[in-house]
Design a protein that fits this description.
The chain is 36% helix and 27% strand. It is α+β, with helices and mostly antiparallel strands. The protein has two domains: 69 residues, no CATH class; 174 residues, Leucyl/phenylalanyl-tRNA-protein transferase, C-terminal domain (Aminopeptidase).
C-alpha cells in the first residue's frame, strides 16, 4: 500500500487531482485541459459525495493500491431525458403487468443487490456508506434514492440514483427477471415526469437510453442546465404504483 502522502503524486499521472469540495468549481476546466472525464480525490465521505453530485458530476470510486479513491466523472457527452420524450415499447408495457414500483422502500437492500450484481464494481464500500448516509439524511440538497420493482414482494429490478433540486440522476441498477429492467426504467420515467422533474440524467451514452427517448447533451450544456435545476425545489415522488396501470394510463391515448 502506498503511503497516503505519496498517493496524490501517483494519481496525478493518470488524472487531475483535487483535494475537496472547494476544488469542484475547477473540475470542468481541468478536464477540458486534460482531455479526460475524471478527476481524482482521496475523500469519499458524505460531504464530498454530496457536493460532487450537486456540482453536476457523477461520484465513482475504486481501490487504488489499497486506498479508496473518488473518481469525479464529468461526461463529455451525457444522455438526458426531458419531460414528454419518454418512449416505451409495447413489449415493455405487456411485461409491466403484475409488477409494482416503489420509491425508497428498501434502499439498503436495493444497493446491496446492485453491488452483488456487478462483480467489477465502482461502488466501493466507503462510497456505499456515504450513499446510505445521504439517503438517511440529505446534505447540500442531495438525497440518494432507490427505485425498486417487485413481483409478489420479490425484488426483481432496481436502481440507485440521487435528486438535486429538480434533477434526478441514475447511478447503477440491476434486474433479475427478463424485461424487469425495462419496466423499472419506464415506470420511473413516468413518475419523474408526473412529479415535475426538469430532466432525468441518465449518464453515459448507451443505445438503450437513446431508445428510451433521451438526447445527447455536451458537457457545457448539461452543466448549465443542471446548475439551474439544482436551485429549484425537489418535487415529491409518488412512493408506489402498479407498473401495468401506470404504463397503461400513460399510453392508452397514444396506442
Amino acid at each position: 500500500m502506498l503511503p497516503e502522502n505519496v498517493l496524490p503524486v501517483v494519481l496525478s499521472r493518470y488524472f487531475p487531482v483535487i483535494s475537496g469540495p472547494a476544488d469542484l468549481p475547477l473540475v470542468a476546466a481541468l478536464l477540458e485541459n486534460s482531455h479526460s472525464e475524471f478527476c481524482a480525490c482521496l475523500r469519499t465521505d458524505p460531504e464530498m459525495i454530496a457536493h460532487t453530485c450537486r456540482s453536476g458530476f457523477l461520484p465513482m470510486s475504486e481501490d487504488f493500491t489499497g486506498h479508496d479513491v473518488l473518481l469525479v466523472k464529468s461526461h463529455e457527452q451525457r444522455c438526458v431525458l426531458e419531460p414528454g420524450a419518454l418512449h416505451v415499447s409495447r413489449s415493455t408495457r405487456r411485461r409491466a403487468r403484475g409488477l409494482t414500483i416503489r420509491i425508497d422502500h428498501d434502499f439498503d437492500s436495493c444497493l446491496e443487490t446492485i453491488v452483488n450484481h456487478h462483480p467489477e464494481r465502482w461502488l466501493t464500500d466507503r462510497l456505499c456508506d456515504s450513499l446510505r448516509a445521504l439517503h438517511r439524511e440529505p446534505l447540500a440538497g442531495v438525497r440518494a434514492r432507490s427505485a425498486e420493482v417487485y413481483a409478489d414482494e420479490v425484488l426483481v429490478a432496481g436502481e440507485i440514483g440521487y435528486t438535486v433540486g429538480s434533477a434526478y440522476t441514475s447511478m447503477s441498477g440491476f434486474h433479475s427477471a427478463s424485461g424487469a429492467g425495462s419496466v423499472q426504467l419506464a415506470a420511473l420515467g413516468i413518475l419523474l415526469e408526473d412529479a415535475g422533474f426538469s430532466f432525468w440524467d441518465l449518464g453515459m451514452v448507451i443505445e438503450y437510453k437513446i431508445d428510451l427517448g433521451s438526447r445527447v447533451w455536451k458537457r457545457g450544456a448539461f452543466l448549465q442546465a443542471y446548475r439551474a435545476a439544482r436551485e429549484l425545489p425537489t418535487p415529491d415522488l409518488r412512493r408506489s404504483a402498479e407498473c401495468g396501470e401506470l404504463l397503461e394510463r400513460r399510453y392508452s391515448s397514444t396506442g
